[in-house]
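Take a sample.
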Amino acid sequence: MAYRYLTGTDYLVRYGAADLLRVWLWSIGIGVVFYVVAALIVTTLRKNRVPRATDDQIAILRKMNRHDRKIVNGVVTFKLNNVDMRGYPAERIEDGQTLVWVAPKIVTQWDAAAAAQTARGAFEKQINDRASLDALAQSLEDAKGRGWVQLRWNTENSILDPYHLKIESITGYLPPEVIIEVP
């Protein structure tokens, strides 16, 4: 009221209901845009970090690397439908956690060509040098792109694909093993 008497400007008269409606709609629009941008960022970060059952071997290696997992990884045993199985945790198991992603062992099958065997030797050296999972994933991706290697899951005594396992299903912890098999 004091402002109106001092300046002679009455904002309720000068600005009408249409102006209030515009400000209200713009506020809602800006809020929706911020929400959508934040949701896209969170979704992208989760997609790049959280394993899924449909992930291939290279994607699992990259996601395990983002969870600070190493080439030599602990093995868990668990029961699934009363069948004893084993898998490699794709993320750290923390206190209070109810679910953990586990993956089967990765098996490589290299082509007999000289270039493929050279790439295989370099890859085995990376494994022996305990390279990061991201570096191993990059090497496998390059070799796979050239048709030098085929990748598959080792499903013997294991799950068929990455699996979101209930922690209570874990029956034991085995000594760490290399998650990639190069026969």
User: Anything to note?
Assistant: The two ends are 85 Å apart (CA to CA). The helical segments are 2-7, 11-14, 17-49, 57-66, 114-128, 133-145.
